[in-house]
Amino acid sequence: MRGIVLYGPPASGKSTITVALGELDPRFALVRKLKMGNQRGTEYDFVSAAELDRLRAAGRVLIETRRYGNVYAIDRDRIDRLTSAGRIPIVHLGNLGDVRRLVEDAPWLTVLLWVPRQICQQRSHQRGDNDTAHRLQAWDETLADLRADDDGLFHHRFSTDQAGPDEIARVIAGTFPDEGTVPLGHRA
Ligand SMILES: Nc1ncnc2c1ncn2[C@@H]1O[C@H](COP(=O)(O)OP(=O)(O)OP(=O)(O)O)[C@@H](O)[C@H]1O
């Protein structure tokens, strides 16, 4: 597997589980997205339109998503650099089209993280979001996306109101044996 895709609505736990994975095994590393538009958010590296054009022309833009007037992109080179360094890249995605595009390119472990709408709202308030209404709109869009068709796309599905982040991280990490470990079934 090339890495891990965490897909889910706002406050479903993508960032929390990414941190838990990193604590379990330092090989896990978030692929920071590029963002062109407003300079809000801590998980992005901000780029200009010219820089994004340059990356696109160089064939480096693996995923490109437009939302609320902003453009979010994933730079293929970042994934390649992590993989070459023996790390396991983690990508956060919010729509199924992007998940499909990524897995067409290479095999990724696909993980659906779910959270009920009411808990999404509670978590959004608790972590101090000032745009909870937008988050709930994105939650509605995620549900519509999943209802339309997610047949067989995900290897794992977790309800993050029913299992803790460490428990979920342990299951995901179990897919990536330690380097040098011979997987069960292949021992002499
Ligand atoms: N089992 C769980 N897994 C993950 N997060 C949990 C869980 N239980 C409670 N939480 C809480 O839910 C919140 C999830 O927020 P987090 O930022 O990780 O979600 P996200 O999917 O990355 O959100 P966004 O897409 O809006 O950035 C955190 O405050 C976390 O502490």
UniProtKB/TrEMBL annotation:
Residues 1-93 form the Guanylate kinase-like domain. Gene3D superfamilies: P-loop containing nucleotide triphosphate hydrolases. One of its GO terms (molecular function) is kinase activity. Keywords: Kinase, Transferase. SUPFAM superfamilies: P-loop containing nucleoside triphosphate hydrolases. It comes from the Bacteria. PROSITE patterns: GUANYLATE_KINASE_2 (PS50052). The keyword Kinase applies. This is Guanylate kinase. The lineage of its organism: Bacteria, Bacillati, Actinomycetota, Actinomycetes, Streptosporangiales.
